[in-house]
Each structure stands twice: as C-alpha cells, then as structure tokens.
Amino acid sequence: MMDFQVVVLAGGTSRNLVPLVSKEVPKALLPVANRPVLSYVLELLELSNLKDLIVVVEGEEAALRVGGWISGAYVDRLHIEVAAVPEDVGTAGAIRAISHHLTAKDILVVNGDLVSDVPPGAVAAAHRRHDAVVTAMLCSSPVSGLPEGSSGGKDKMKKAGRYNLIGLDHTKQFLLYIATGSEVEKDIRVQKSILRAVGEMEIRADLMDAHLYAFKRSALQEVLDQKDTFHSLKQDVLPYLVRSQLRSEVLLNGAPQAQENATEKVTSQSNHLLLSEILANSSRPSFHEMYAVGPNGTAPVRRTHKCCVYIASNNKYCARLNSIQAYNDINRDVIGEANYLSGYSFSAQNNIIHPSAELGAKTTVGPHCMLGEGSQMGDKCSVKRSVIGRHCRIGSNVKVVNSVVMDHVTIGDGCSIQGSVICSNVQLQDRAVLKDCQVGAGFVVAAGSECKGEALARKEK
Fold it and tell me: Where is the EIF2B subunit epsilon/gamma LbH domain (predicted)?
C-alpha cells in the first residue's frame, strides 16, 4: 500500500449515541451483529494489507478499554498503537494531537464508525495517481430516507434538509465545491476562478462523505499548524483545501489581477474573453491539467494543489454509525442484505443461531436474525429482523422485532420489543412493552411498563 500511514479515528463517548454509549462502552466498542463496530474498519484495512495503524480514542478511560479489546482480538494480526487524546477535540484536533507520530508522505484517515466494503486501497491509488493533497471517499447517501447525521424519532423534523452539496468537474474526479449540513440553507457562493477554470460544474446532493480521506501529510500538517481553530476535518479542513486549490492570481492582458471576491460580477471584456476560451476548452481531460499551462501557453491561474474524490460504486455498502437511527439500520443490514460484511456463516434459514443457544417449544427465529452464544429463549417466542446478544435470558411469549438486544439481558414473560435497542445487563420485567426506545446499560424496566420513543437510562455517577 505504498507507504501510507493509517490513522483510525475511533471517537469516545459520542453524545448523539447516548444512552447506547457510556464510560463502560465507548462508541468504538458498540456491537454491530455482536462484534464491536471498530472491528469492521480494522478488518477492511487488513484486507487492503494495511496492518500498521494508529487508533485514536478520545478520553483516557475509553482508550484503555479500546486498547484492551484490540490487544486480545488482533494480537497476531495487526500492529496497532492506541493513542488517547482529550475529549471533544474534534477530528482535526485529534490529528493535531498525534501529528508527531506522522512521518509518511501520505496519510490515510478513516473514521472508526465506518461499515463498508469499499477497499481503502482504491482511494489511496486514486490519491497517488493524481498527486492530490486530499482525496475524499464519497458514496451514495444512506437509503433509510433520513439525511446524514439525523437520528430519527423526534429529530426527524428538525434536521430535514441537512444534506451535503458537492461540486465535481465533468470527469467526476476533482472536488470543486463542498458545503455540509447547516451551510446548505444559505445561498451557494462559488469562486469565479473555479467556474472560469472548469466551465461547468456538477452539483450533487446524493453523495455522503464517508470520512475516509487520503492526505498529503505535509499539506495536512501545514493547515493544522496555521489554522489552530480548525476542529473538524470534514467541516473545516476539507472545505478550506477545496476553496484554496486555485489561487485567482489571474494574468489578464499581462497585468496581475488582485484576489477576487467570490460575489463580484464578471463584467470586463477581458474576463468574458477568458471565460469563452475556457468554455470552448471545457471538454479537455480536466481543469487541473489545462491550468498547469493555460490557454495559448500562458499561465492565467496559479494551480496550488488538487482536491480529488473517489466515488464508490452503487453496489458497494457504505454507512457510518453516527446516530441511533444509523445504529439500527446498520445492524439490520449486516444480518440482512449486507450479511457478507458480518463475517459469519448464515444457515439455510438465512439466520445465525449459535450452537450453544437454546430455544423453547414453538419459538421461531426468522431470517435476518442473530442469536448469540449461550442465550436461552422460552416457549412461544418470536424474533424477526433482530440481533440478540450473548448469554441473554428470555422468558415465554416474548416478541422481538427490528431490534438490537445486547449481551446479558434478561427479558420477562410476555414482553414486546419493537424498533428498540436494549443495552447490556438490562432487565425487562414481565409484560413490558417497548416501541422505538433505547434502554441504557443496567436499567430495569418495571413490569407492565409501556414506553414509546423514549430513552431510558440510569443517571451517570
């Protein structure tokens, strides 16, 4: 893999995943199909023969837990250094904090919540091919019908419209414009130098930034050093690199033109002449090649660097576990249509029931389900499109639909669970009914309770 250094940003205890995450279970260790979400990224990297990794975790305690799990699971397979950084430093701050470890020419930065089968090697190869300062992996937006980053439930209305707008050249290899989420409501302002240079730009709202980037290390470090307020790779560093990739030091009639304002109108005759020349040439391979030497052998625009994209094909799976809605969707996908990602062998009934699990009389576990090691179910239970963890004790006449039940959960007789996430060591007493709920670790749901759309959790000490 051409001497890329790999950094995995594994986060800490993400606020928008409460009560699923806690001090005991940092985000990286949240189970997806009964294995930590971080394992999906580590195995994707391993498949690309990337085995020398720095895993960055926010918070000392979370780093210890993640490091403990890694040293058990990957002891002979990968060489992983776990680095703890302060909480809430953001993705840019996390890279800044470990920058003294970065020595390679190019850095691959991957978010630890990515579940995908897109080979990182393909992104790295595109990056090297174009000699880019950054190459971002883009994939189709999630199909759950919710904008990226929304969590479903009560937030659906508030966050509608938070999409990415991405501007590409006609070859769909160069990133010309990016606006994320909250910026999108404003007017779109595009630098004239970019429009002049490309002639046309395709604006896409159907692509998601997968948070997998290849960076030229020297450029990334320069930006992080100069811009010490930058917090996020996606919202600060990437847009900055995109904005600054063509400096508008344009030579018109031999006279240098000052840096131009993005909203200034193109009026002068010479500007029109230049624009028409560019439009006439817009079928050239790419504006970066064209503007290395401008029309007629002049150099009207000084190209400073290239920002590129790698767009994953539509038949690839790509999702980020960045909300509770996404957590539900990914668990369902990994035991359903994308079950090849789970690493498990599915039965003829298209499910996974661990050989040590016990099922009572007339209990059914449907297709696209998973029942973990040592779990026991009573009589007349029904499980549909759900993941049940290890060593759970489930009574009789229990229904579980579209839900995730983590390890060591006790569920009393007659309970009904739909569209919910039940964290480890939870106790549901008899006849509890949950619909679209999240129950934090160790919580006790009283007998006969009926909860809808609630987050139930013990107070953190």
Answer: 354-447
Domain 4-248+305-325 class in CATH:
alpha beta
Residues of the chain with CATH 2.160.10.10: 349-456
State the pLDDT at residue 14. 84
Strands 4-11 and 52-58: parallel
Q: What angle do CA 32, 110, 141 make, to 5 degrees?
A: 70
Which fold would CATH assign to domain 349-456? UDP N-Acetylglucosamine Acyltransferase; domain 1 (2.160.10)
| Residue 391 to residue 254: CA distance in whole angstroms | 77
Task: Note the Cα 181 to chain centre separation in Å.
Answer: 15
Q: What is the pLDDT of residues 241-262, one digit of tens each?
A: 998 886 533 333 333 333 333 3
pLDDT surpassing 90 at residue 211: yes
Higher-confidence position of 262 and 63 = 63
pLDDT digits over 413-439, tens only?
999 999 999 999 999 999 999 999 999
* Bridge partner list, 109: 7, 213
Residue-level pLDDT at 156: 36
Q: pLDDT digit string (tens) for 89-132?
A: 999 999 999 999 999 999 999 999 999 999 999 999 999 999 99
State how beta strands 307-311 and 134-140 pair.
parallel
Average pLDDT over residues 150-173: 62
Asked if residues 17 and 323 have their Cβ atoms less than 8 Å apart, the reply is yes
